[in-house]
Write a structure and sequence with these properties.
Elements: H1 6-16, H2 20-29, H3 34-51, E1 59-66, E2 72-80, H4 83-86, H5 89-104, H6 110-115, H7 124-135, E3 140-147, E4 150-155, E5 161-167, H8 173-186, H9 198-214, H10 222-237, E6 243-244, E7 247-251, H11 252-259, E8 265-272
Antiparallel strand pairs: 1-2, 2-3, 4-5, 5-8, 6-7
Amino acid sequence: MSKITASEVNKLRKQTGAGMMDCKNALVESKGDFDKAIDILRKKGQKIAAKRADRSASEGVVISNVNSSKNIGIIVSLNCETDFVAKNEDFVNLANSILELAIKNETTTIEELNSLEFTNGKSIEDNIIEQTGIIGEKLELSLKSIKAEFVSCYIHAGSRLASMVGFDKKIDENIAKDIAMQIAAMNPIAVDKDSVSEDTINKEIEIGKDLAKQEGKPENMLDKIALGRLNKFFKENTLLSQAFIKDSKMSVSKYIASNSDNAKVLSFERVGLS
């Protein structure tokens, strides 16, 4: 076998992003076969990914965008283990490239996203595995999507939180973005009270009864008090009933109604790093 040259090592490093010693060792192991060396680095990434499966990937980048027709919105979250990696330019560029590809292909599921082909001819999933080996941290990719007549999104400063909202008709983009910001800031659990799950309602009623009982309220008043607290819960935790963040004197539903032709919020998504 011919001697592994520094130029070969550097070529492999530039193509894969792996460290110099990792590239040299891969070329030695592959006996100078460049393609096999790439496979070795990929397998190293797979091993590291498996070894770090129980680690917490709570840092990263959360970004969002809509397609040119503004009827599909996508949030991509690329998570890692440390803030140091999350702020690395290459890591941020990777996240942006993934989102750009997702928007271009109007991808709506993580399975579709993972199978999309990057410019290097490999799938996004394979690229994530390779980067796990190169960076040495657990990486996790997730996707949320919305399809509606009109979708708006918002990315909070620092790219650790993003939201999007879908409407039944086109409305002013600034109004739509205000609602996306409301979702990011106030973290509602549903569009309105009719969208809240029965399990959540039953749990809140039970909590309301227990609190009233602890306060010494009469047994025959517990249900009424619990329902009153449930209505307060709806007001604080459902999007349309919440006080609008830019004008607390009006609800979100009133803000939408007064600034659009009775547009309806169909759905929303919110993704943030823990």
